[in-house]
Amino acid sequence: EAVGPQDYTAIKMKVLDWSAKAQEKLAEYSDKLKGKNVFLVAATLRPETMYGQTNCFVGTHITYGIYNINETDAYLCTERAIRNMSMQKIFADGSTTIDKLAEIQGEDVVGTQIHAPLSNYPGVYVLPMENVLATKGTGVVTSVPSDSPDDFATLTDLQKKPDYYHIKSEWVNFVEPIPVIETPTYGNLIAPRLCELKKINSQKDKNQLAEAKEIAYKEGFYNGIMCVGKYSGEKVQDAKPKVRADLIASGEAFAYSE
Ligand code: A2H
Fold this sequence. Notes:
It is built from eight helices and twelve strands. The chain has one domain: Isoleucyl-tRNA Synthetase, domain 2. A hairpin with a 4-residue loop joins strand 4 (about 65-70) and strand 5 (about 75). It is an alpha+beta fold. The chain has helices spanning about 20-25, 30-35, 80-85, 105-110, 150-160, 190-195, 205-225, 235-250; strands at about 5-15, 35-45, 55-60, 65-70, 75, 100-105, 115, 125-130, 140-145, 180, 225, 255. The site of ligand A2H has 22 residues, from strand 2, strand 9 and helix 7.
């Protein structure tokens, strides 16, 4: 656990097509949501990996709100996160008033198609993850299976057992990890490689995943070279703040801390 404040990059993932369940549940809020672009907001510590996004994760039992941000936009995240955001001047005119437009359970958001900024995939799906904490970040996790062992293990679970996880196989069967960072010891798909070396079979293998996560983070940050995008060929340490600044400048992300 982090001791000091965590500086996250909040990635805005625009809803392209709500799942059938979400459409049904959100029908009662249609007046309030009319004309709004809704974005799932994911908090990440690795903005330089966003080229490798393949999906995003929510907790099925987490309750999310959809909150008014300005005339055109609304954000889907936990109530805890919107409270933090309200104090970080992200609303129109610097207001701190929280305006909740709708409420929805994570399980009903699953299957929604969204746009993930910088990803090769034009549209990706919202999928369930068992270990999403309601008490961290926004409660929405963007998934980068090339560089995050947790994401790779979870995605593999879903691809192996879609029925068990109550998802449609067409939401995951097209997904392959995308190389983003070249590392000297583990190649350009560090998370799949570490899951193989540590014999990680599922998202439930928490101890091995914690070890893999530690290695992936250090190896990527200190020894990684970007192999995709505008900063291809640069060190991850140098590219990271640049990708973050670009995403913020283009309006696809914003700074969020807690
Ligand atoms: B990271 P820290 Cl490629 N519950 O983003 C569980 N995990 C969460 C979360 C929540 N509510 N909110 C954010 N996270 C994840 C990318 C990534 C991340 C890569 C590699 C490692 C990594 C893509 N997923 O994190 O406890 C998010 O996943 C390894 C630590 O605040 C976020 O960054 O240190 C990270 O955990 C924040 O974790």
